[in-house]
Amino acid sequence: MGQCGGAAAAPAGSSAVAAARGALSTSVAWIAGSN
Q1: How much is the pTM?
Q2: Helix or strand run (H / E) with residue 9
């Protein structure tokens, strides 16, 4: 059960990290473009 929960949580965590990186990279590109 614990291992199952950990395996389920890992993709969710990776997804959040990927989303955060995507948002950061978009912000950086937008700021660079607006300057």
Answers
A1: 0.49
A2: helix 2-34
